[in-house]
C-alpha cells in the first residue's frame, strides 16, 4: 500500500504540468506532420532542406560509412541508449522514479508499434531514396533497393529515440542526460542523411514518441507501472530475467519482433 500511495503522490508533483505542455506540443506536431504528409505534396522548404543535406552524400566514403554504421549496427545506437537506461534505473533507487522510468521505456517502444500501424494504414509515402523527381544522391553505404516498398511516415526509429531521450533527460544527471538527447538527435539525423526518412517523418515520429511518454506519466499508468515495478523487489529473479529480454530489445530496437509483426500484417 505504501508504494502505491507514494506513486499517487509523486504523480501529482509539478512534473505533470510539464508533461501536459510537452504532450500538447507533441500532439500538435503529430497532427501537423500527418496533415502535411497526407494532404500536401513535398513542400519546397523540405525539398530544399533535404537536398542541402544530401549534397554532402557520396563525397566521402568515411563520412557515409560513419552514418551507415550508426544506422546499421546496434552496438553504436541501441546499446549506448541501453547503457544509459541501466544507469538511470540503478541510479534512482526511489520506487516512484523507477516506476516512471519503466512506464516511460514501455511507452517509447509502444510508440514504435503505433508508427508501424500508421505506416500500414495511411497512404503509401515513399522514402526519399525512392521518391521520383527528388534526385536524391545515394550515400556509398545505401543500396537503391533499401527499404523498397516500406512507407516512411512516421519514423519508428525517431519515435523510440525521442521517447527514450525524454525519459533519460528527466531521470539522469545533466551530463549523461545531455549526451542521451544529443545521441538521439544524431541517430535521427542519420536516418535523414541516408535518405531513409524525410524531415517531417522524423519530426512526426519523434513527436509521437514523446507524446506516448507523456501519456504514460498519467496517474493510472503509473499505478500499473508501480504494480509491475514492485516485482523487482518481490520477484527480482523473474523481473530481471524479463528485464534482460527488454534490454536486448532496446539494444536492437526490437528489429526481429518488428520484422515478424510486419510480415504477419503483410500476409493478412
TrEMBL record:
Its EC number is 3.6.1.27. Gene3D superfamilies: Phosphatidic acid phosphatase type 2/haloperoxidase. It catalyses: di-trans,octa-cis-undecaprenyl diphosphate + H2O = di-trans,octa-cis-undecaprenyl phosphate + phosphate + H(+). It comes from Kushneria phosphatilytica. It holds the Pfam family PAP2. Signal peptide: none annotated. This is undecaprenyl-diphosphate phosphatase. It comes from the Bacteria. GO terms for molecular function: sphingosine-1-phosphate phosphatase activity; undecaprenyl-diphosphatase activity. InterPro entries: PAP2/HPO (IPR000326), PAP2/HPO_sf (IPR036938).
Amino acid at each position: 500500500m505504501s508504494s502505491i500511495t507514494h506513486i499517487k503522490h509523486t504523480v501529482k508533483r509539478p512534473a505533470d504540468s510539464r508533461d501536459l505542455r510537452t504532450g500538447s506540443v507533441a500532439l500538435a506536431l503529430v497532427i501537423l506532420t500527418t496533415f502535411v504528409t497526407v494532404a500536401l505534396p513535398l513542400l519546397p522548404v523540405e525539398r530544399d532542406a533535404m537536398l542541402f543535406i544530401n549534397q554532402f552524400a557520396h563525397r566521402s566514403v568515411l563520412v557515409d560509412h560513419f552514418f551507415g554504421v550508426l544506422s546499421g549496427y546496434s552496438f553504436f545506437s541501441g546499446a549506448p541508449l541501453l547503457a544509459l537506461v541501466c544507469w538511470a534505473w540503478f541510479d534512482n533507487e526511489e520506487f516512484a522514479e523507477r516506476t516512471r522510468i519503466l512506464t516511460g521505456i514501455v511507452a517509447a517502444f509502444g510508440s514504435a508499434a503505433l508508427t508501424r500501424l500508421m505506416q500500414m494504414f495511411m497512404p503509401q509515402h515513399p522514402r526519399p531514396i525512392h521518391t521520383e523527381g527528388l534526385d536524391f544522391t545515394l550515400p556509398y553505404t545505401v543500396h537503391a533497393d533499401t527499404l523498397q516498398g516500406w512507407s516512411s511516415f512516421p519514423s519508428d526509429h525517431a519515435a523510440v529515440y525521442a521517447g527514450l531521450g525524454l525519459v533519460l533527460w528527466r531521470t539522469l544527471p545533466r551530463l549523461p542526460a545531455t549526451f542521451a538527447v544529443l545521441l538521439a538527435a544524431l541517430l535521427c539525423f542519420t536516418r535523414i542523411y541516408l535518405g531513409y526518412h524525410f524531415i517531417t517523418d522524423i519530426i512526426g515520429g519523434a513527436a509521437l514518441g514523446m507524446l506516448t511518454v507523456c501519456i504514460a506519466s498519467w496517474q493510472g499508468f503509473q499505478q500499473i507501472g508501480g504494480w509491475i515495478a514492485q516485482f523487482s523487489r518481490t520477484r527480482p529473479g523473474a523481473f530481471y530475467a524479463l528485464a534482460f529480454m527488454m534490454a536486448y530489445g532496446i539494444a536492437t530496437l526490437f528489429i526481429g519482433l518488428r520484422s515478424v509483426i510486419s510480415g504477419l500484417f503483410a500476409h493478412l
